[in-house]
């Protein structure tokens, strides 16, 4: 078994900018930026141009968090190991890992090619980040662009690149970010959190719990199919374990670690992936989630801001979700679907049904996931 996730809930604590309401933007922004000003500037309450730009960009991404309640005064228990402390610091102080000379300028790129050109200005960066630039879904790439140039991620990529040169690493490089191509950020309605990619030959292809067609369906996935069959009338259990259709229907299947050394479970844990995938979850919770269009009769979707469903199975996934605002999002927790624990709370949890009931309440009758269509009776998405 791979090592359990350490708590990273502090990543979701609101910052000074995020917590500001629209009516008090100026006051909150001034307080947050004042620490970086000279003494005369603090007295005058004048913001630097860089601070103004940072605040303006931060407010647009954080608009959905403006009414987030203040963090609990009760101190959260966080693993005291050096690795955990580093992760917690990264999430409470997002720029801690990026020195002033080791991050992109404050102006953000608006296209893949624009970002490619800017990163290419630093040869060391483009060598390490070419995979992300070439294979990550564009909306994810642009949303996570600042994360890619932080020190921890550049170090992680150096480690992964060296591993790929000397050892067999799963999934294949071109599939590491398949979750981002198959499930655009704007379409996410459900998030299912896994741990490690499968570490045997031919299994992993970038989606948590999923294996390629022709590969034996793993035990955990068989239990997921069983639970869905019991909950969803008309769902026909597939004879394969490829969950690509789930991703295309708005289900983000995200592992905490995105790579693993062949036949060595947990071998790439604690190398930095947990920090990156926590940033992925933060992007999901901070941005608009989709809602069915009430103005279109052809299934077109319009942005909505009513939250997403997190399915957190097992202690590892529960820790990954710690700190997510459960007033904006639905967090469904239970035992893991593994045969070792499925009978202790996973089977019979009704999570797929509960997810749809919540989504339909938030987004209307067509707001749920068409779970039935994801079985062998469903038609593949083109």
TrEMBL record:
<feature type="domain" description="Uracil-DNA glycosylase-like">
    <location>
        <begin position="181"/>
        <end position="359"/>
    </location>
</feature>
<comment type="function">
    <text>Excises uracil residues from the DNA which can arise as a result of misincorporation of dUMP residues by DNA polymerase or due to deamination of cytosine.</text>
</comment>
<dbReference type="InterPro" id="IPR036895">
    <property type="entry name" value="Uracil-DNA_glycosylase-like_sf"/>
</dbReference>
<keyword id="KW-0227">DNA damage</keyword>
<keyword id="KW-0378">Hydrolase</keyword>
<feature type="compositionally biased region" description="Basic and acidic residues">
    <location>
        <begin position="40"/>
        <end position="56"/>
    </location>
</feature>
<keyword id="KW-0496">Mitochondrion</keyword>
<dbReference type="InterPro" id="IPR002043">
    <property type="entry name" value="UDG_fam1"/>
</dbReference>
<feature type="region of interest" description="Disordered">
    <location>
        <begin position="22"/>
        <end position="96"/>
    </location>
</feature>
<dbReference type="Pfam" id="PF03167">
    <property type="entry name" value="UDG"/>
</dbReference>
<keyword id="KW-0234">DNA repair</keyword>
<dbReference type="InterPro" id="IPR005122">
    <property type="entry name" value="Uracil-DNA_glycosylase-like"/>
</dbReference>
<dbReference type="InterPro" id="IPR018085">
    <property type="entry name" value="Ura-DNA_Glyclase_AS"/>
</dbReference>
<feature type="active site" description="Proton acceptor">
    <location>
        <position position="196"/>
    </location>
</feature>
<keyword id="KW-0539">Nucleus</keyword>
<comment type="similarity">
    <text>Belongs to the uracil-DNA glycosylase (UDG) superfamily. UNG family.</text>
</comment>
<protein>
    <recommendedName>
        <fullName>Uracil-DNA glycosylase</fullName>
        <ecNumber>3.2.2.27</ecNumber>
    </recommendedName>
</protein>
């Amino acid at each position: 078994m791979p090592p359990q996730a350490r708590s990273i809930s502090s990543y979701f604590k609101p910052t000074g900018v995020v917590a500001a309401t629209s009516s008090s933007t100026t006051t909150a922004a001034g307080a947050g930026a004042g620490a970086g000003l000279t003494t005369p500037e603090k007295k005058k309450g004048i913001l630097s141009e860089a601070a103004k730009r940072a605040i303006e960009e931060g407010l647009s991404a954080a608009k959905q968090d403006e009414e987030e309640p203040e963090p609990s005064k009760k101190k959260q228990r966080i693993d005291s190991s050096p690795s955990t402390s580093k992760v917690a610091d990264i999430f409470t102080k997002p720029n801690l890992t990026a020195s002033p000379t080791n991050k992109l300028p404050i102006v953000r790129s608006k296209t893949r090619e624009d970002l490619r050109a800017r990163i290419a200005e630093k040869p060391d960066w483009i060598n390490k980040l070419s995979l992300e630039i070439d294979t990550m879904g564009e909306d994810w790439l642009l949303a996570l662009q600042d994360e890619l140039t932080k020190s921890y991620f550049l170090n992680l990529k150096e480690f992964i690149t060296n591993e790929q040169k000397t050892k067999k690493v799963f999934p294949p490089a071109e599939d590491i970010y398949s979750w981002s191509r198959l499930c655009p950020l704007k379409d996410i309605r459900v998030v299912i959190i896994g741990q490690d990619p499968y570490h045997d030959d031919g299994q992993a292809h970038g989606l948590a719990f999923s294996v390629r067609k022709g590969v034996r369906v793993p035990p955990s996935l068989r239990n997921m199919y069983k639970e869905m069959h019991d909950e969803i009338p008309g769902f026909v259990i597939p004879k394969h374990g490829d969950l690509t259709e789930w991703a295309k229907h708005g289900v983000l299947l995200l592992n905490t670690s995105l790579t693993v050394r062949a036949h060595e479970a947990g071998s790439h844990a604690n190398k930095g992936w947990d920090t990156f995938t926590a940033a992925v979850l933060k992007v999901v919770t901070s941005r608009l989630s989709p809602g069915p269009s009430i103005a279109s009769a052809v299934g077109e979707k319009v942005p909505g801001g009513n939250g997403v469903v997190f399915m957190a199975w097992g202690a590892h996934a529960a820790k990954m979700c710690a700190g997510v605002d459960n007033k904006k999002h639905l967090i469904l927790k239970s035992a893991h679907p593994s045969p070792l624990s499925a009978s202790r709370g996973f089977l019979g949890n009704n999570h797929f049904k509960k997810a749809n009931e919540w989504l339909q309440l938030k987004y209307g009758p067509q707001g749920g996931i068409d779970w039935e269509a994801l079985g062998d009776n469903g038609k593949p998405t083109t």
